[in-house]
Each structure stands twice: as C-alpha cells, then as structure tokens.
Specification:
By secondary structure, the chain is of the alpha/beta class. It has a single domain, classed as TIM Barrel (Alpha-Beta Barrel), CATH 3.20.20.80. It is built from nine helices and nine strands. Strands 2-3-4-5-6-7-8-9 form an eight-stranded parallel beta barrel, surrounded by four helices. Helix 8 packs parallel to helix 9.
C-alpha cells in the first residue's frame, strides 16, 4: 500500500468533496426541513440472513437467550463463539451503567478504515478531526481469554502496531469513558443498543447525554445505535428510525465536532439479492454523519478470496447516494486453502487495503475473532504482516 507523505485534515477532504457535489446542499436542506417538521423516512423490511450471538448469553437484539450465528448471506457479520468480536460482548452491568463511571458491558473492539466525504460530521459544520485524508486501519479486541480491555488492546497493538482505530461493542448502554481511558486518545467505532421504545420514552436520555458530554474532544468517535438492524426481525423499523433521530439529537447537544453519528448496516443489504432496501433503516440525512458497513469475504464458501471491488463497490455506491462519508466497521476472511491459503489471504488484505485508501474510506476494522464454523483471526505471519503494514500506513 503506497505511503502518504502528507495527511490533510478530514475537514479539508469534506470541503473538497462538497465543492464537487454542490447539489447535495439542497438535498441536505430538504432533509433538515423534513426532520424539523417531524417527517419520518420509512419503508419495508426484508431479511434473509440470521445473525445472533453465542457465548455471552445475549442475543444481538439485547435479549437474554443464548443463540448462534448462521451466515445465510455471503456478506455481513459472521458467527462468534466468545466475547471477542462484534457479535458478542460480556455483560457486567445493567443498562444504568453510563458515563457517570459505573460498571458497564465489557466491550469488544475492532479498528476501522476510511470513507469519502459527504455532509458535515456531527457537532459542527466545519469539523476538526484527527483523522486525515487517508484511511485509518484497526481491528477488534479479543476479550475471550480474559485479561480485560487494556490487555486486549495492548495485545493487538503488539501484533499489528498501534491500531489506527478501535472497534468496540456494547449490548446495552456504552460504558463510561473513565472505564476505558485508552479511548480518550484513540479513534474508535462504538456501537450500543437499547430497545427503541425505551429510547423514545426518554429512559436513557440522562445517561446518553452524560456519555456524549464526556466524550473525547481531541479524537474521533464514530458512534452507532443498534448496528446491523437487518436481522433483528422484532424491530419496529419506524421506531428504530425514530430512536436513531432521538439519540442523534442528544449527541448534537454536546457540540463536539469529534462525535460522528454512524449508521452501520450489512454489506449484503446493498446487493439486489438481499431483498432489502437500505432506506428502511435510514433515519434521515440530518441524523447521520457517516455510513458504516460490515462486509466479509463473500467467496470463502466458494473457495476463493473475493475481489475487493466486487465486495465493496456496492457499499461505496450507496454511501455516495446518501451523500455521506463511509467506512468499514467490520471485515474479515477465513483462510481459503484452495486460493493460496495464508499467502492468498495476505494478498487479499493488501488488495483490500489499497482499495480502501484509493476510494477514500474513513476507516477499516478487521474482525479478529475465533468464530464458530471457522476462525477469522489472523494467526499466520503473512496475514499479520499484511495487516500490520495497513495499520502502519494509517498511523
């Protein structure tokens, strides 16, 4: 992956993008007016891919029954068997643990990659952020073996170099910033989920307001409410979109230009064969700053490493349609012995990294997890070296 001799600010990237797409200002204005009038954005829901959690005793919807993951589609999030990746977390508290410093769900983490610029990021029309014009690369944290967040982050830094971004997952409210001080100086992608009805009733207003107010002001936080909603069939999508709008409004009160409302959907949703419409989950331009995507090597079941353009062109296109910057919140590949094995995966990681950098992705986070049905964890040296090179390029 070619090194960049200079790194311009993200605000510069957004300004350049906006000048090339002046027409979006009118679209954004209409969206803002619609939001102010309380006009909802709705649609139908369709899903054919089951993804739930195993090992934590919680479903991906925040319930209490242990479940497993079935990857019926080839692009999206894979199964997990331990609290080490996006699908599983270790809950250590109730939903009342918040920015006030109480105990909270033990998260998992994954670093991310870049996106093209779109509408202004949250908190400011001229955001000042640490992310430059290049892509930030990182990985999730492996919390399955104990040792806690700090040890898991240190282990990933030792393997890949200092992660350019960290992916963190919570099954309820996010933990206090004081509980994970490392995130005060490290860009992060943080997702959390609470039932939309409770959000709309204001049950979490005080906790979320405090969490947003305490968020870092010198590094970027790409926060997401209820990532991958497509497989949670119990969700009322009108309530989901309304809850997103409610939480986004709370985040704006912090007036923090480093807080970026990030909708995270499955890459598979952008494919015609999914039967889905991404608009069904979209709460409106005024509520979203960044489009995030979970897209995995779709060819592993067919014995090959999928060309990055085939895998990521659709999500980049939808992000452009939305007029938003974009990034990859989760991606990974199992080893494919029939397509070069470890060498083939290393080549795929390099090709994917080059694709992200050349397509202006904001971030890319590798889902470094031992999952049921085949591990995605990078344990072979060729793959480690390839991802280490990508991370170094984002440092």
């Amino acid at each position: 992956m070619p090194k960049k001799s200079t790194r311009t600010s993200l605000s510069t990237s957004i300004s350049l993008w906006a000048r090339r797409h002046r027409w979006l200002s009118a679209v954004t204005a209409v969206a803002l007016l619609a939001t102010g009038l309380g006009i909802g954005l709705g649609g139908r829901s369709n899903d054919d891919r089951l993804v739930t959690s195993a090992g934590s005793g919680q479903s991906s919807s925040g319930g209490t029954s242990p479940t497993t993951t079935t990857d019926a589609a080839s692009v999206g999030s894979p199964a997990a068997t331990a609290p080490s990746g996006s699908k599983t977390t270790t809950s250590t508290s109730s939903a009342s643990a918040t920015a006030s410093g109480g105990a909270a769900d033990q998260p998992s983490a994954t670093p991310g990659s870049g996106a093209s610029a779109g509408s202004p990021l949250s908190g400011s029309s001229s955001p000042s952020t640490l992310l430059g014009s290049g892509t930030a690369f990182g990985a999730s944290l492996d919390l399955a073996n104990g040792g806690g967040f700090s040890q898991a982050l240190s282990q990933q830094d030792n393997r890949f170099g200092k992660l350019g971004i960290v992916r963190v997952f919570y099954q309820g409210l996010p933990a206090s910033w004081a509980s994970h001080p490392e995130l005060a100086t490290r860009p992060s992608i943080i997702s959390f989920k609470m039932q939309p009805s409770a959000v709309l009733n204001g049950a979490y207003d005080s906790q979320l307001t405090a969490w947003f107010a305490a968020a870092p002001r010198t590094t970027d936080v790409f926060w997401s409410y209820w990532h991958e909603p497509e497989n949670d069939h119990q969700l009322n999508l009108a309530d989901y979109r309304a809850a997103w709008q409610h939480i986004s409004a709370l985040s704006r009160r912090a007036s923090n230009p480093h807080l970026h409302a990030t909708l995270i959907l499955m890459g598979y949703t952008t494919h015609a064969g999914s039967g889905r419409d991404w608009h069904d989950y979209y709460p409106g331009s005024a509520s979203i700053d960044v489009m995030g995507w979970d897209a995995y090597n779709s060819g592993s079941k067919k014995g090959k490493y999928t060309d990055p353009a085939t895998l990521f062109d659709p999500v980049a296109a939808v992000s452009r349609e939305a007029g938003k910057p974009w990034g990859i919140a989760e991606t990974a590949s199992r080893l494919v012995s029939t397509d070069g094995g470890t060498t083939g995966r290393a080549d795929w990681l390099r090709a994917m990294s080059n694709y992200m950098a050349s397509h202006n992705a904001l971030f890319v986070a590798y889902w470094d997890v031992n999952a049921s049905g085949g591990s995605f964890k990078l344990t072979d040296q060729p793959s480690i070296n390839a991802w280490r090179a990508a991370v170094a390029d984002s440092a």
